[in-house]
């Protein structure tokens, strides 16, 4: 099992699955919704759906991007392209919140990440 898959294993804290490149990322809807308006909109629109397919993004890049809100984030060199598409994630512990913004977020939701 890769570090990407291990970081998103099913647990008692996860309540949704994001399917990327045929692989499952078990996530917590409230956590992602808190840190991203994209996921807040997605999960509010798809309340009864437990699995959501995410298209046109590399699994490792996307898992690393989502890991930014976890205790031990995965930081690859290709994070900028995914951040551009999905915007920024606010991260931090307790009162030491910081905004993680990599690359430009203008028009991020309409951009496609090309595999390569």
TrEMBL record:
SUPFAM superfamilies in the record, alphabetically?
A: POZ domain
Q: Where is the BTB domain?
A: 14-78
> According to the lineage, what is the superkingdom?
Eukaryota
Pfam families (UniProt xref): BTB
PROSITE patterns, alphabetically? BTB
InterPro entries assigned to the protein according to its UniProt record, in alphabetical order = BTB/POZ_dom, SKP1/BTB/POZ_sf
Q: Which PANTHER family match?
A: BTB DOMAIN-CONTAINING PROTEIN-RELATED, HELIX LOOP HELIX PROTEIN 21-RELATED
Record's protein name: BTB domain-containing protein
Organism whose genome encodes this protein: Caenorhabditis brenneri (Nematode worm)
């Amino acid at each position: 099992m890769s570090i990407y898959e291990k970081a998103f294993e099913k647990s008692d804290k996860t309540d949704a699955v994001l399917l990327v490149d045929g692989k499952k990322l078990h996530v917590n809807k409230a956590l992602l919704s808190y840190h991203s308006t994209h996921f807040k909109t997605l999960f509010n629109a798809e309340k009864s759906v437990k699995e959501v397919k995410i298209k046109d993004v590399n699994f490792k890049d996307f898992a690393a991007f989502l890991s930014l809100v976890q205790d031990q984030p995965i930081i690859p060199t290709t994070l900028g392209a995914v951040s551009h598409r999905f915007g920024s994630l606010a991260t931090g512990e307790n009162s030491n919140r910081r905004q993680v913004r990599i690359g430009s977020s203008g028009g991020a939701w309409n951009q496609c990440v090309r595999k390569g």
